[in-house]
Selenoprotein F
Amino acid sequence: MAVGAPIWLVLSSAAASTDGPGSERCRSLGFGPSLLCTSCTKLGEHVGKDSTLVEECAGCCTDEAQRASHFAKAVLDGAPPTLYMQDADGRTVDELSVGGWKTEYIDEYLHEKLNA
């Protein structure tokens, strides 16, 4: 029986890494769908790159190259301020907490990410 436990943990860890950004597991760990992998790298500089937290973060992040997408529409919602990026069909594909963003950063982001 003791031999089965480590194998289960390894399989569980492998399955967790395939959950991906925006999954229920990632949300329950506190990682939002807009998490970039560069944030996980920076986190590793503070808590140690071999930390379980960094591993979980890496399983829930998006590489910046993959994230370079454009959206049809953006909706800014109240408290806390959240920006919902939507595709041409009106489906929310990304959500960003913009509470700490300066107005000019939001404007720059929207000019960069919205379809013309």
Residues 1-18 have pLDDT under 50 and may be disordered. The chain has two domains: 18-65, 69-113. The first helix runs from residue 4 to 17. DSSP finds six helices and three strands in the chain.
